[in-house]
Amino acid sequence: MANEPKNENEVVQRFTSMRQEVQTLYQKLSELDAELQEHELVIKAISDMEEKRKCFRLVGGVLVERTVGEVLPAVNTNKQGIASIKEQLQKQFDSKKEELKAFQDKWKITVKNDNSQQNEAETSSGDNKGILA
């Protein structure tokens, strides 16, 4: 990192902001995953219907009447776009998670509420330096 933290407070602030960024990316990935599942349900529900059958689609908050033949390709295209965005976001998430882990290891940061490291924090020699609440 170009600008290293100068004191313990800066380390804590940077760690907290990095952790928040990872959490935000995780939440966005979860939202995209839910949208993908919704698109798959719609595709599954209307794919066996006649192409001329009446169908309604929500476009920008407005319910519009279309046919299955018009809606199905659009939903498939949207699903592919969401999957592509999710893939890019997953790569970004993995990268940020590794960066956070490296920062945590470099500064020997342990988190009391973190289940994977809770035992380490409890068995430390009583020195709270490097432990975040």
TrEMBL record:
Q: Which UniProt keywords apply?
A: Chaperone, Coiled coil
User: Which portions of the chain have biased composition (kind: Polar residues)?
Assistant: 112-127
Q: What ranges does the record give for the region Disordered, renumbered to this chain?
A: 112-133
Q: Which GO terms describe its cellular component?
A: prefoldin complex
The molecular function GO annotations come to: unfolded protein binding
| GO BP annotation list | protein folding; response to cold
Q: Which InterPro entries match?
A: PFD2, PFD_beta-like, Prefoldin
Q: Which residues form a coiled coil?
A: 15-49
Superkingdom, taxonomy of origin = Eukaryota
What the entry lists under CDD domains is as follows:
Prefoldin_2
Q: Name one Pfam family in it.
A: Prefoldin_2
Family in the record: Belongs to the prefoldin subunit beta family.
What is this protein's record name? Subunit 2 of molecular cheperone prefoldin
Q: Which organism is it from?
A: Chloropicon roscoffensis
